[in-house]
Amino acid sequence: MAFARGALLVLGVVVLAAAAAAAAEGGGSVCFDRVFSFGDSLTDTGNFLLSVPEDFPDPARYLPYGQTFFGRPSGRYSDGRNLLDFFAEAFGMPYVPPYLGGGDFRHGANFAVGGATALSWSFFRERGVEPTWTPHSLDEQLQWFKKLLPSIAPSEPGLAINDEKTCDWWLCATVACSQRLSDAVDLRKQNSPDISDTAKYTLNLPRTIRQTVKSTKLLCSCAERSDVMSKSLFFAGEIGGNDYNHLIVRGKSLDELHELVPHVVGAISSAITNLINLGAKKLVVPGNFPIGCVPLYLAIFPSQKEDYYDEQTGCINWLNEFAEHHNKMIQEELEKLRNLYPDVTIIYADYYGATLDIFRAPLKFGFTVPRNACCGSDAPHNCSLSIMCGNPGSSVCPDPSKYISWDGLHFTEASYKVVIQGVLGGYATPPLSEICKGGEYKVSQLHQCTDNPTNTVTYDALSSFI
């Protein structure tokens, strides 16, 4: 198995053939036209900073964040690129812009927000936990996407059906728009011979639908929406880790964490189902990372107990076992969804396995400092809650590429690159090649890491950090 794991990472770079030129010509990947991402700080490309006042003292607003690749802070919680950036590069796509930044979303949008949870604020408040992190949970990110969708899939003038259920019934009499447009049109031909004339076509619709057509100003074409959704790739995560992280740093028990898992998994499943009902055909759902290897947790949960740490990795066993439990539940839920929606490709991205490989043999990947933060304090593991990266008193290592962890909670871009190589190479179920069914599977080789200088808020110091 050790050989297989190593081979998978090599496969992620070598076997995946280059297609950057084709993507540049067509404006998208050969497998999909755009990427939409939901999640937290592991994939945030600027949304958290855009969601708070300009004077909010978030470390990612300043150097050394962004120093390695962008040469400036970019809203990412790393020294450079993150998971989403490397995935976009691998498929020859542009970097995915943050939704709150506005602009051109023809090739997708990123809704991930640093500190975001799968569950809403109300869920935690009902359980006696007062949120001090971003309110932009997974459900709100999904609402952002629904607001954006009509602008990406505009319709013909005069065809303005904004209600999803009406739109879906009118077009194909199913819960979600699908490939059955031609069948639906055939059913209407007997009433409207000249269906190319939208005005005449709408006259033959039931009165309630004609009223919707007349009264709605937002444009929503079911056919174009179906096309946009089916030719897009959706990242549902990584999300859910913060639901646990926010409780772990508050000293909640392991039993309380386990009670949370079904709710977190349920929220992720609900978001996936929502996207499928909107027409999504290709989804990637990552699992949680081996959080027992996170320097912050190694620093705040030290122990002399026997078997507390894994002998090979030095990571905290109980935290990694909890992450494994979450991932097992997610995978079981995804299998249920695959059975319910056999025409949809739902891929589990095994971030846990790809990352644990690094901790098992860090030198093989070029990491000489596996369990310390590159940027932080002089505390154990270079990490403490009182002096985080970017805060007064913190310092940064001379070579982030030798470190797995950037700031004690997030990874260096060198680590993110290896993780994505692992997922592309085989740490995914089914393989990522499944998203290219019916077409060529060509993926550009990952770029080399090089320097390229190119309201009252009540969040706490860790609001976006985890």
From TrEMBL:
Gene Ontology terms for molecular function: hydrolase activity, acting on ester bonds
Signal peptide segment: 1-23
Superkingdom per UniProt: Eukaryota
Pfam families: Lipase_GDSL
Chaperone among keywords: no
Keyword match Cell wall biogenesis/degradation: no
Keyword entries, A-Z: Glycoprotein, Hydrolase, Signal
Family (UniProt): Belongs to the 'GDSL' lipolytic enzyme family.
Protein name: GDSL esterase/lipase
